[in-house]
């Protein structure tokens, strides 16, 4: 048997966040001037998702679909949605050095919201609606949700679910998220649990989709907790901080004073910073 090696250029894996969930491509590559999307198939359902994905990527940058499988699924003609449910497990906790390698600017600003062509003001943005919902939902369960995040982010010393107090001094987690996007999760007693997005590389649509999925995940988590535990409600400070800060911010917006981000202060990560 003759083996022919075809030179190729790998473009890595791919993920895209949508309102409905997440779309994944195992690897994208270029060979002989053509761009390909390669999928791994393990069963017939994967084959059905592949059939849907072929149409999904047709107008994208890598429109030629290929698959690798131990079995022949060419007989599968039906389709199944290729959009996978969002999972917190898809977020990766990364080290400062690796985090900084993701940054394209010398200084990168992170904020909970920022204006765009599509969203010029915070008060009527989808992001505000999702933040309202998240803060209201977790107000009674902040330390449960904090413990849940610690477990899902796979901290090295966290092996089972527990209910930690929120720290007095803000704690920052550096995260690699879907679409290879960097974000921050900060936690403290005064302001609760917050998500901060890269202002240079993240769209406001991504922020809204991400927060919507986080809210849905928290709803499911709290509902499941109620089935196995008697939950001791512990009123947090996050909702109070958020409502007060948002009210002041929106008041300025309605008076014509537009801000570059919500809240007004941003978190800056420098590429030459050593922590």
Strand content: 15-25%
Biggest sheet statistics: 6 strands, antiparallel
Helix share bin: 25-40%
Terminal Cα span: 55 Å
Query: What Rg is obtained from the alpha carbons, in whole angstroms?
Result: 21 Å
Strands side by side in the biggest sheet: 5-7-8-9-6-10
- Average of per-residue pLDDT values: 90
Order of helices and strands: EEEHEEHEHHEEEHHE
The residue ranges in which pLDDT falls below 50 over 5 or more consecutive positions are: none
Oligomeric grouping of the chains: single chain
Number of domains: 2
The rough form would be described as globular
The count of β-strands is: 10
Keywords:
2 domains; 10 strands; 275 residues; 6-stranded antiparallel β-sheet; 4-stranded mixed β-sheet
What does this structure look like?
With 275 residues, the chain is an alpha+beta fold. It has 2 domains: 9-69, no CATH class; 88-270, no CATH class. 31% of the residues lie in helices and 24% in strands. The protein is built from 6 helices and 10 strands, in the order βββαββαβααβββααβ. The strands form 2 sheets. Strands 5-7-8-9-6-10 form a 6-stranded antiparallel sheet. β8 (181-188) and β9 form a beta hairpin. α3 (126-138) packs parallel to α5 (204-228) and α3 runs antiparallel to α6 (238-254). The protein starts with 8 loop residues before the first strand and ends in a 5-residue tail after the last strand. The mean pLDDT is 90.
Question: What's the gist of this structure?
Answer:
This protein is an alpha+beta fold and 275 residues long.
Which helices and strands, and how do they pair?
Layout: E1 9-17, E2 22-31, E3 34-41, H1 44-56, E4 64-69, E5 92-93, H2 96-101, E6 107-111, H3 126-138, H4 142-152, E7 171-177, E8 181-188, E9 192-198, H5 204-228, H6 238-254, E10 267-270
Parallel strand pairs: 3-4
Antiparallel strand pairs: 1-2, 2-3, 5-7, 6-9, 6-10, 7-8, 8-9
Helix pairs in contact: 3-5, 3-6
């Amino acid at each position: 048997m003759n083996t022919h090696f075809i030179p190729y250029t790998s473009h890595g894996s791919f993920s895209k966040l949508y309102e409905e969930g997440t779309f994944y491509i195992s690897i994208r590559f270029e060979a002989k001037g053509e761009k390909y999307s390669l999928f791994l198939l393990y069963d017939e359902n994967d084959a059905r998702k592949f059939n849907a994905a072929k149409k999904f990527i047709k107008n994208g940058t890598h429109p030629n679909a290929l698959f690798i499988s131990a079995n022949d699924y060419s007989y599968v003609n039906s389709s199944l949605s290729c959009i996978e449910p969002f999972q917190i497990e898809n977020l990766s906790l990364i080290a400062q050095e690796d985090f900084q390698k993701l940054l394209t600017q010398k200084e990168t600003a992170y904020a909970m919201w920022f204006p765009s062509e599509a969203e010029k003001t915070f008060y009527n943005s989808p992001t505000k609606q999702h933040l309202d919902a998240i803060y209201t939902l977790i107000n009674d369960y902040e330390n449960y949700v904090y413990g849940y995040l610690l477990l899902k982010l796979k901290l090295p010393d966290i092996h089972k679910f527990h209910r930690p107090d929120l720290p007095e001094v803000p704690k920052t987690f550096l995260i690699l998220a879907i679409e290879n996007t960097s974000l921050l999760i900060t936690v403290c007693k005064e302001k609760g649990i917050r998500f901060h997005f890269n202002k240079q590389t993240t769209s406001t649509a991504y922020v809204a989709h991400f927060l919507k999925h986080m809210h849905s995940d928290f709803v499911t988590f709290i509902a499941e907790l109620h089935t196995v535990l008697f939950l001791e409600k512990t009123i947090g400070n996050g909702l109070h901080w958020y409502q007060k800060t948002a009210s002041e911010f929106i008041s300025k917006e309605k008076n014509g004073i537009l801000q570059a981000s919500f809240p007004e202060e941003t978190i800056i990560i420098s590429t030459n910073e050593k922590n």
